[in-house]
Design a protein that fits this description.
single chain, repeat, about 650 residues, BTB/POZ_dom, about 30% helix, BTB domain-containing protein, five-stranded antiparallel beta sheet, BTB-kelch_protein, kelch repeat
Amino acid sequence: MEPKILGTESRTDAYWMDAHLGGVEKKVEETEGGMRLESDTYAQHLLKGAGSLWQQVSLCDVTLEAEGVQFRAHRVILASVSSYCRFLFTKHPSSCLSERPVKLQGVSAQGLKHVLGLVYRGHMTLSMDMVEESLLAAQSLLIQDAIKACLHFLAISLSPETCPQILGMASRLGFPHLHSKALAYLGTHCHGLLRDPEKMLGLGPAALLQLLGRDDLGDISEVKLLRGALRWLEHKPNRASHAREVLSRVRLPLVPPEALLDELAEQPQVCADPICLQMLREALTYHVRPLLQPALQGPSTTIRGATPCLLVVGGRTEGNRVCQEVWATTERDVEWKRLGEMGAPLYNHCCVILNNFLFVLGGQHQFDPCGHQPTNEVHRYDPRTETWIQVAGMLQKRTRFHADVLSGALVAVAGGTMLGRLAESVEQYNPGQDRWELTTSYPMPVVDHAGATHKGILYISGGFSGGKTLSHLYSYLPRLKRWVPNRPLAISRCDHGMATVQDTIYCVGGRTLNKPMCQPSSHAEQLFAFQAQEWTHVNEMEFYCPAVDQWTTVRVSPLGCSQFSLTASGPQLYITGGASLRSRSKIRDVLTYASRDRKWERKGMLPLALVDHCACTLSISGEMLRRLQSQLSPCTPPSPAVSTLKLSVLE
C-alpha cells in the first residue's frame, strides 16, 4: 500500500498537473528517447533563486572590488554571463580567488552594483547620471546583456538636451552605432540645439562639423551658426586646432559684412591661421562686389534649406493700374504672401532666375497701349539678403520681349522699343562683367513671342509682326551665334507661354487672328492695334520634342485667356492670371498642369487679377519663409466650388 500525504486525499490528478507541470509547455519535439518538454518558468525560478542567494550572501565564492568596495558573488553565475570572468576563473585556482578579491580598475562601485543587479535580478535601473559608470563596468566585465541594456537606454533617451552628452559618451567609449544614431537624431532635432548655444558646447568635433555641414538649417541665420561655432572653439583651449575645419562649414559669405568684422576680425583662432584669414577675405570680397555676385556663387553662398516659391512680379490689374508688388507662395498651399515691392511699378517686363537671383528686365512703368515709353533698366533681387540693386541696363529699351538664361548669361530677344517700333536685336548680359553686348539679330522684328531653353539651346516661337500672328519656331545656337529654323507651330499665336519639362517644350494658350488685320498705318498701330472681333483664343496646347523636331497638338477644354504668365516647376506647369477676350476682363486664376497625367487643375487664385506680369520660381530661406507664413493672409481666396475644377485633355 502506497503512503498518503496528509490532506491530499481529495486532490485529483488535474491538481498535481497544474501545480507541478503548469510551467511545462505542450510537446515541443519528439526524439528517439521520447518527447522533449520545456518549462517556461524554469529560467525565472533559477534567476530568482540565484538572486536570493546573492542577497543573503550565501554560498558566495568570489569577491569583486571596485573603488575599495567589495561585492560577494558566485563564480559560476559570473562565468556564465561574463566572458572576462570565465577566462579569469578558468585560469586561476579556486583557492587563489577565494583568498583575495578581484580588483577591477576603472570601474566605479555604483556602476558595478548596477551591473551585478542585472546579473542576479534580470533588470537594472538607469539614469543619465549613472549610465556611463554602468556601461564602463559592463565593458570591463564583458557582460553583453548589460552593455545592450545601457546602449538601449541611451538610444531611447536621446533628446536635444542629452544628445551632446550621448555623442561624447559614444565617442569616448567606442560605440560607433550609437554615435551614428545620435548624429542622425542631432540632424533631425538640430534646431533645438542651435537655438541654445550652451547646448552646442558639449558636442565633439565630429558632431559639430556634421551639424554645421547640414543643408536643412534654413530657419537659423548664418550669423547664429557663426557665433555658436566661435563659442565652441573658445570653450576649451584644445579646440583651436579645429578652427579651420569649423569655419569652413559656416557659409561666411552669407554673414553680413559688419558681423564678419565684429565676430572674426579679432579672433585669435582666425588671425593665427592663414587659411582662416583667407576665408574671411574671400567672404568680405564677396560683399564688396555686389554687382558680380551671381558669377561668384558656390557651396558657401547657397541658402540652407531653401524652399522653392512661386513668385508673381508686377503686372497690370483692374483699371489698368500698374503694380510693383512681388507676391510669393509655396507650391503646396498657394496662399499668397507679399514678399516686397520693386522700386517702381512695371508691366510687359521679363523676369529671369540666374543662380537664384531674380532679374527684372525692361517693361513699362506707366500704362501706355502704344508702348512709347519702355525702359532698359535691369533690377536684381537677392533672396540671401532680401535686397534690390540696379545693375547695368540693356542697350535697347524693350517691352513685350523675351528674356532667358543661356550658358550662364542673360539673353534678351527682340520686342518693342521706343515709339512702338519693333526690334530684332538680341543682347547678352555677362554677370561676371556687369555688361550687356549685342550678339546677333532675331530673324524678324517681333513682339509678344515666347521662349524656353532645352539643353543649352534657346527656342523662340510665335509672336506678332507685320500685322499678323506667327507660327515660326527658331532655335538659337549660342556657340555659333546663329538662329536655325525648326518645324513651325500648327497654329499661329502670340501672347502665349512656353516652358520646358524634362525633354519636352510646351506651348500653351495665347491668341490668334481669325482674319487678316487691316493694314496698319504706323508702327504703333501695327504693334498694339486691338480689334476684339478679329482675335480668338488658342485653346490647343502643343508640345515639342527637340530630338525629332516634332510638334504634337492636344486640345484642352477652353482656357480662355492670354497675356498670362507660364512657368515650370519640376513636372508641373503653372499659369497665373491672364485676360479673357470673351468677358473682356482680367483673371485671378492659378492653374497647374501635371505633365504625367496631362490634366489641368485650378489650384487657387492670385491676390489680384493680373495681366502682362511675370511668374517664376525662386528658392528662399526657411527664415524668410517662416516670416512670410506669419503674415496675415488677406489674399487667400475663398473656397468656391470651382476650386477643384479639372480641365480634361483630349488627344
